[in-house]
Known about the structure:
Layout: H1 14-40, H2 48-77, H3 81-86, H4 91-117, H5 122-146, H6 149-158, H7 177-197, H8 216-235
Amino acid sequence: MTEWNTPRPEGEPSGVVGNERLTALIGAVVLVLSVAEIATVPTLGSLIVAHFFVGVLLAGPVVAKTASTGWRFIRYYSRDPAYRRKGPPRPLLRVIAPLLAASTLTLIGSGIALAITGPAPEILVRVHVVSFLVWLATLAVHVFAYVRRVPRLIAEDWRRPFRLKHDDGAAPEPSGRRTRLAVNIAVLVLAGIPAVLLLPTAAPWEGWRGQAVTGPGVLAVAVSIGTAVAVMLKRR
Length: 236
């Protein structure tokens, strides 16, 4: 789940540009939902329904972003000329990308499993907590790396208004913009259906006071984030 770090040259193939903008838009959706999910953690007992809903809803955009970045990964390492010109991601981001992808999928998967089984399986709770800590650390580094770049990519897509037909002399609407918007809406709708259906499973968790994400876990995350950010700043 990473993106290329080189500037976009003039005349770059539309497929490369479209993939980059799709990844940026889906990434922004993932970030907003992730922040909402993190916000429920400190008062999990009272916000467990929101935690369940947002967690399952996240699955749609996460799968779409994994597919989008996976496509770029395949095209780059299969030596597609257009994607090779974009260059590889930064070394640190290449290292954390598998951790971010694995922890995200484990976090969501274990969360859905806990929604189905209830709070009884202790091993699932531990897996969920550990994957959350790894996900939080790698997500923070990932966001730090792209927080200035993603808004620009999205703005390039949404700078011009939608038009049913082009007026003479008007700049064309960015190619594929409607498709990228449709993909984001579709994955949210598809994930929203199971998110609603699983809401009743939150009842056994109401008032739950199990393992909290505090103490050594939070300290380890803070140290990991600080170390990774320091390395990135030094490289810059």
